[in-house]
Write a structure and sequence with these properties.
The protein has an eight-stranded mixed sheet with strand order 4-3-2-1-5-6-8-7, sandwiched between helices. Strand 1, helix 3 and strand 2 form a beta-alpha-beta unit. By secondary structure, it is of the alpha/beta class. Helix content is 31%, strand content 25%.
């Protein structure tokens, strides 16, 4: 029997813990299950607003690591100094948009990462097939970024809405990564068709 998912509970808990959104608990569970983060990693967070995933990633990689948070929308969340915030196109690589915050400018030198995260979702229309197709488009583009920027052995986490074309992306992921797992964290809303692919062991150089 599955455990009930209470959206209000997760939202209140996130606020009490200092995170701007309940999505933090999705990433926390994924990390707990798949051991994504290590001290000193370089992490790219695509579509990072409002900032929960980037904040959690920064805490996990520590000051010796680096997190690059990218979103077309401004991010007001306060971060430690090893987080680089970029307001711009999450799919525009190499990253040439000016970073904000206190991160040293030399972080612009080379955009390669140990872990690429994407919690992006389209603005929903209420039409299931349309929303799923748009979600797949975002996930596919995030995968393209991961292929260009991941270091060998790196990992990729991407959200998408379930639908008939999901197996096609799964096939592509399996060609590029040693292990590909599907997961639906407890904090996912009951009415949502979203889930995550967790791909580890990237097998090509960027």
């Amino acid at each position: 029997m599955s455990r009930p998912r209470h959206s209000d509970h997760f939202t209140r808990r996130a606020k009490r813990s200092g995170y701007p959104a309940r999505s933090i608990f999705k990433l926390e569970e994924i990390h707990r299950r798949f051991s994504l983060f290590r001290t000193g990693q370089k992490v790219l967070d695509l579509g990072a607003a409002p900032g929960s995933w980037s904040l959690f990633a920064a805490q996990q990689v520590g000051p010796s690591g680096r997190v690059t948070a990218v979103d077309i929308q401004p991010i007001s969340q306060a971060f430690p100094s090893h987080v680089r915030v970029i307001q711009g196109d999450a799919f525009a690589f190499p990253l040439q948009t000016e970073a904000t915050g206190d991160t040293p400018s030399q972080d612009n030198a080379q955009d390669v990462f140990d872990l690429v995260l994407s919690d992006m979702a389209p603005s929903t229309t209420g039409h299931r097939n349309t929303d799923q197709a748009r979600s797949m488009g975002l996930a596919t583009r995030a995968f393209e970024v991961a292929q260009r920027t991941l270091l060998p052995g790196g990992s990729f986490v991407v959200k998408l809405f379930d639908g008939p074309d999901v197996p096609e992306l799964q096939q592509q992921l399996r060609k590029a990564f040693k292990t590909v797992k599907r997961t639906r964290p407890e904090a996912t809303r009951n009415i949502s068709s979203e889930f995550f692919w967790v791909a580890t062991g990237f097998q090509s150089e960027p």
